[in-house]
Structures are given as C-alpha cells and as structure tokens.
Write a structure and sequence with these properties.
This protein has 2 domains: 190 residues, 3-Layer(aba) Sandwich (Rossmann fold); 160 residues, Glycogen Phosphorylase B (Rossmann fold), CATH 3.40.50.2000. It has 15 helices and 13 strands. A 7-stranded parallel beta sheet has the order 3-2-1-4-5-6-7, with helices on both faces. Strands 10-9-8-11-12-13 form a 6-stranded parallel beta sheet, with helices on both faces. β9, α9 and β10 form a beta-alpha-beta unit.
C-alpha cells in the first residue's frame, strides 16, 4: 500500500481535488490517502470541504489579514516539513497554479518525495499574466514527477519545456468530475438556494465573476462600466454578480453598479449555489480559469475579461472568446450574443475540451501503474 499526501489551500484547488481524494480513498487496497489543507483561503475552502464531506487530517490554517506571497510560501514550506516526514509519504499530489501548489512541490522536493501535478501544462508564456499563477505552475512542472495534463495542448506545452514524454498523461480535468457530480445532485434533489431568490427567472441572466490581480484598478472600472451599459441597454436581461470580497474588486463594483434595478450584486456564493446559478445562466462574463472549463459542459457561452488565457482549447472550439477589459469590446460581444440566436447556438453547443467526468479514474490507474514500475519512489 502506498501513502499519498494531497495538499491544497484554496477553493478552486479543493473543487478539483476533493473528487480525487474520494476516489483514492475508495481504493483502500492500493492507497492510504492523507489530506492537508493550508487554508490559503479559509472560508471559501471550508465551504467546498463541507460539500464533499472531507475532514482533512492536517490544517495549517495559514491565512492572515493582508497576507503576502512571501507569507504564504514560507508558512506552507515550514508547515509541511514535519507532516511529510511523519507520514512517510510516497507521493505528494498538488493541483494547478496557486502559491500553495508551488510551495508544496518545493517542500516535497526538499524531502525527495515524488510529486504528482494535477492540471499540469497550462501556459500563457507570460510570467506576469496571470500573476503569480504562471510561474507557480511552471516551477511546479520543473519539480513534478508525474504530470496529469488535462488536454493534448497542455501536453505539448510540457514537451516544449523538455518534460519527458513518458511522465506526461492526458487525463481530462478533474473540475468536470466535480461539476457533473454536483450539478446532477442539485437537479435530482431539486435543491433550492434562498440567496438566489432575488433573481428574476423570467429574464435571461448574465453571470459575472471577477477577481484577477492584473485587472485591479482601471480594468475593473472598465468592466463595471461595460456591465452598466449592458444593463441599461437591455432591461429584459438581468446581470448577476457574486462580488469577490477583495476591496479592489468590491469598491468599483458597488460604486458603479449598485443603483441599477436589473443588476443583482450578491455575496460570494458557496460552490453548490454557484453551480446552480451557472446552470441557469444564459451568458457568462468572467476572468476565472475554472469557469472557462466548467461553463462549456453546461452549454454556456463565455466571454473572458483577460488579455491572455492559459486555456486556449476552449477558444479553438468556439465556446469561449477573449474580450479583455475594454469597455467597448465587452459591450459589443455581449450584445452580439443577446441579439444573434445563431451565434449564441454556435457558442453553446461546442464539445467541452476539458474532459468527460472520468479524470479521477484515469489518474488512479496511472498511479497504480507508476508504483508498480517504481519500487522506490523517494
């Protein structure tokens, strides 16, 4: 039996790793799995743990007010040192591109522990866009032993960086495993979420999210003014915006949009009500990486308020379009989708390039084969 330590610290990581934790735990014949959360984000992380009924064996609880990247990196490395040693770990698994991900991979490397990287190979080739995620994932790739790439393009990115082909596996993205599980549960149980009662279901809903550092300042002002234009020009639609708690986001959103009747500004949503809202929306405007992956599975056209994306596959299928933070472009492209049923249909029926809901199963099979062929993994 092999000992697997799975480490994560933010809500997006939890969403993508909780299904894998459950799947590995179900293979008691092959693995013992231990989970550690860093709590880089506290409340939003805990919401996801509750949904998937996961109680971590370790909680570093590092989140502090006004924490910096320096704080996160140092606390994660120091906190994991004893845990990795005590658990006689055979492999550490991390996901994506957070500072928790990179710091965990570095700690595992210092202890000569094998590293598995879920959602490996995403690239924009610009180290400051997104910041610090692009370098977090590149540095994690330099340390990892197994690379679970969600798509063929991700695999090609890794090959360009001289990662050995035999260490790269195309698995799909575990976010689709999580999405379909939670979506089906909401539908089958006909779950009701009181915080969504304010939404006028007779109108087409535009779901908006935004949190990226590179858009702070004028970028968010442009986005908010674009949303104001869209709302005023289309009284028959409703803009629904769960607003991130960061003051750099919250301040421009509320100052520009709070007085509009057909704009609903919500508190940040737990994962289940967010998926219910996504499932019922008409168009999505976002700078989120995860939503670019999720929305195509639900048939939702996505306009991405970023200049670059590390997820070009959805651009190539036509279900996602980059609009940046130009007020004019956001308004124009949204209006086209509202006014042109054929364009809307074209963007909403694409096949999701990020997976079929079986990524966790593929990763487990890869791990079993890896440990069979590597009798010593430390």
């Amino acid at each position: 039996m092999k000992n697997i330590l799975i480490v994560f610290g933010t809500r997006p990581e939890a969403i993508k790793l909780c299904p894998l934790v459950i799947a590995i735990r179900n293979r008691k014949d092959a693995f013992k799995v231990v989970t550690c959360v860093t709590a880089q984000h506290r409340e939003m992380l805990d919401q996801v743990l509750e949904i998937f009924n996961i109680i971590p064996e370790y909680d570093l609880n590092i989140m502090s007010k006004d924490q910096t990247l320096f704080d996160i990196t140092g606390k994660v490395i120091n906190g994991l040192q004893k845990i990795i040693h005590n658990e006689t770990t055979d492999m550490v698994i991390v996901q994506g591109d957070t500072t928790t991900t990179f710091a965990t991979a570095l700690a595992a490397y210092y202890k000569r522990i094998s590293i598995g990287h879920v959602e490996a190979g995403l690239r924009t080739w610009d180290k400051y866009s997104p910041y610090p995620e692009e370098m977090n994932r590149k540095l994690t790739s330099a340390l990892a032993d197994l690379h679970f790439a969600p798509t063929a393009q991700s695999r090609e990115n890794l090959l360009k960086e001289a990662v050995p082909d035999e260490n790269i596996y195309i698995t799909g993205n575990t976010v689709i495993d999580a999405l379909l599980t939670v979506r089906d549960k909401i539908r089958s149980e006909n779950k009701h979420f009181k915080m969504l009662d304010c939404i006028d279901r007779r109108k087409r809903t535009i779901l908006v999210t935004g949190h990226r550092r590179e858009s702070f300042g004028q970028g968010f002002i442009n986005l908010c003014n674009a949303l104001k234009d869209i709302a005023l020009n289309n009284p028959d639609i409703e803009v629904v915006y769960p607003v991130h708690l960061n003051p750099s986001v919250k301040k421009p959103v509320y100052s520009i949009l709070s007085e509009l009747n057909n704009v609903k500004l919500l508190e940040p949503l737990d994962y289940e009500p967010f998926i219910a809202l996504l499932d019922s929306s008409y168009i999505v405007i976002t700078d989120s990486g995860g939503i670019q992956e999720e929305a195509p599975s639900l048939g939702k056209p996505v306009l991405v308020t970023r200049e670059k994306t590390e997820r070009p596959e959805a651009l190539m299928t036509g279900g996602v379009k980059l609009v940046g933070t130009s007020r004019e472009k956001i308004v124009t492209e949204t209006q086209r989708l509202l006014d042109n049923p054929e364009l809307y249909k074209t963007m909403s029926i694409v096949q999701n390039p990020y997976g079929d809901g079986h990524a966790c199963e593929r990763i487990i099979n890869i791990l079993i084969d890896y440990f069979k062929s590597n009798t010593t993994c430390r």
